[in-house]
Write a structure and sequence with these properties.
Order of helices and strands: HHHHHHHHH
Strand content: under 5%
Structural class: mainly alpha
Helix content: 55-70%
Number of helices: 9
Number of domains: 1
């Protein structure tokens, strides 16, 4: 299949693209495997570890890279386009997860982690840093430019934010506690504002990732891409 003129490296292809996707799958898969061996209150709780936005983002990253690897092995445009569609939201979401996690952790880890359940460093990096690194490399080196405009990203991220809020409250009614201790310290209005703020951060993150892509692969050309109706390979 033809490669987009702004794409830095060949993808889908059984070369560096396949290697990166397989390494990402191994990293994400290892993180999920760790969850099956880590005995915490979430192990048997309603919603399992998917109460955490981190794990939802990790799942999206795994789906994206699995589709990318299938595209590399089959050279299928359908798998490649599906990978790109998932990464449009998964990559900025993971960027926000990493920034919020490490930022809040630096201020007060007790706001994020229940007492007695600190993650080992390697697993912490696997959950909260590796996904954004892998997804950003895929976006910058192996993908055509994103064409979703800012209002589209904001709309999708807002739907995701309020969907997650509903999910968190549902789990709270079943379990009697929130996944992040921070949520218990906030009022309902404050939690709503937090989710709205997070949706805005995803939009900002998407814009910054577009700028990084443009600075590496061609600013003027990439800047014109969002005016096209679809993200496609040329």
């Amino acid at each position: 299949m033809a490669q987009h003129r702004l794409q830095r490296l060949a993808s889908p292809a059984p070369s560096f693209s396949l290697l990166l996707h397989l390494l990402g799958i191994a990293s994400f898969g290892r993180s999920f495997y760790f969850l099956t061996t880590w005995e915490t209150p979430f192990t048997h709780a309603y919603g399992w570890h998917f109460q955490f936005l981190t794990i939802i983002g990790l799942g999206a990253a795994l789906v994206s890279f699995a589709l990318g690897a299938l595209a590399d092995m089959t050279r299928s445009p359908a798998f490649f386009q599906a990978k790109n569609a998932v990464s449009v939201l998964a990559t900025p979401l993971e960027a926000v997860i990493s920034v919020l996690y490490w930022g809040i952790r630096a201020i007060d880890p007790d706001l994020l982690i229940q007492e007695g359940f600190d993650l080992p460093l390697l697993e912490d990096v696997g959950f909260h840093l590796a996904p954004v690194v892998f997804l950003t490399l895929d976006h910058v080196l192996l993908s055509p430019p994103w064409t979703m405009p800012a209002y589209g990203t904001m709309a999708l991220s807002t739907v995701l934010a309020f969907g997650y809020w509903y999910w968190v409250e549902l789990c709270f009614t079943k379990n009697g506690w929130y996944p992040y201790p921070l949520f218990a310290l906030l009022s309902t209005l404050q939690r709503v504002l937090l989710f709205v703020f997070s949706a805005a951060l995803v939009t900002v993150s998407s814009g910054l990732l577009k700028r990084i892509y443009a600075s590496i692969n061609g600013y003027d050309e990439a800047r014109r891409e969002p005016h096209k109706p679809l993200k496609k390979v040329e």
